[in-house]
What we know:
alpha/beta; five-stranded parallel beta sheet
Amino acid sequence: MTRKLLIHQCCAVCSASFFERIPSGFRVSGFWFNPNIERSCESLKRETALREFNAIKGVETLGLRGDAHKISAAQTSPMLPRPQRCRTCYKIRMDETARVAAESGFEAFSTTLLASPYQEHESAKAAAEDAARRFGVGFVYIDSRDIYYDGKRFAVLNRLYSQKYCGCAMSLAERLASGK
Length: 180
């Protein structure tokens, strides 16, 4: 029996490595919900690349288009350092993913946030586990950080957009300040 797994997808790059580690026995649907992305043009680039990735993989994409449900700077407490400010963002995204999974008949969910060595891994995992408990849906833990750069190569080879920061205004400011 094939089980339905909803994958919260933050971007095409993380999805590429993450999808290599999804256990067999699941029918996967992708879920685009990333209201942390501050700029509309950046959000559109990431969503477009993700939809292109999902088309390559033959994966249905669920989720909101565009800028719906923006996370404000006030919600993520910009004055706090990482990982504290990221926890709110992860909670918002994992709560919505778990809610959609439960309401749409998915047995479980997971998130490509767990693929990136640049994310606060333990905080993202804890937010997903908490959301799973509260919404009564399973959570499948998948760690693909060790093959993250394989996903980057996949994105380059397939000409998929690859971002340089998390998405929120604070992460953009940090990237610009670092000169990278």
